[in-house]
Amino acid sequence: MADLLDTFNIAASGLSAERVRLQTIASNMANARATRMPDGSGPYRRQVPVFEARAVDPFGTELEQAIARVDVQGIKESAEPPIQVYDPSHPDADAQGYVSYPSINILQEMVDMMSANRTYEANASVVDSTRTMALRALDIGK
């Protein structure tokens, strides 16, 4: 049976996952116009965190098996091709005068950031509510 510590652990895993998501979104927005990586390779590639659900109790009842925490499996690069813009005066222009920019939509990143922020707040609210319930349970026991 899930207990208060499981609730804290599940909410904490959500907080941690959303923090990673917010960091990747910030990185994407900061590099939206980066035409060259520090190592000299092509334009920046959009980063996307990959989440994985892990059962809290894989051997419990069907309900207990359905209760899961979230883990960040990794961060992958987008496979979208770069956006080609004709600008022969740009220092990173190719022989035909085209510059490769990252395929990053700032509006999409802002929507993702708002979603991640709300999910983070929801997990923080779960932690706060669980803490309040635990303190009230202790008061009842006095």
What report would you give on this structure?
It is built from 3 helices and 4 strands, in the order αβαβββα. The chain has one domain. The strands form 2 sheets. A two-stranded antiparallel ribbon has the order 1-2. The protein has a two-stranded antiparallel ribbon with strand order 3-4. 47% of the residues lie in helices and 19% in strands. The protein is elongated and about 75 Å long. 13% of the residues are buried. It is α+β, with helices and mostly antiparallel strands. Helix 1 runs antiparallel to helix 3. The mean pLDDT is 90.
| Overall outline | elongated
How do the helices and strands follow one another from N- to C-terminus? HEHEEEH
Give the C-alpha Rg: 22 Å
Give average pLDDT, whole number: 90
Spatial strand sequence of the major β-sheet: 1-2
User: How many domains make up the coordinates?
Assistant: 1
Count every helix, treating DSSP H or I runs of 4 or more residues as helices: 3
Strand percent estimate: 15-25%
Q: What is the first-to-last residue Cα distance?
A: 25 Å
Q: What is the helix content?
A: 40-55%
Low-confidence stretches: none
Biggest sheet descriptor: 2 strands, antiparallel
- Counting DSSP E segments of at least 2 residues, the number of strands comes to 4
Describe the structure concisely for a colleague.
The chain is 47% helix and 19% strand.
Secondary structure topology:
Blueprint: H1 4-30, E1 47-55, H2 62-66, E2 68-77, E3 83-86, E4 98-101, H3 106-140
Antiparallel strand pairs: 1-2, 3-4
Helix pairs in contact: 1-3
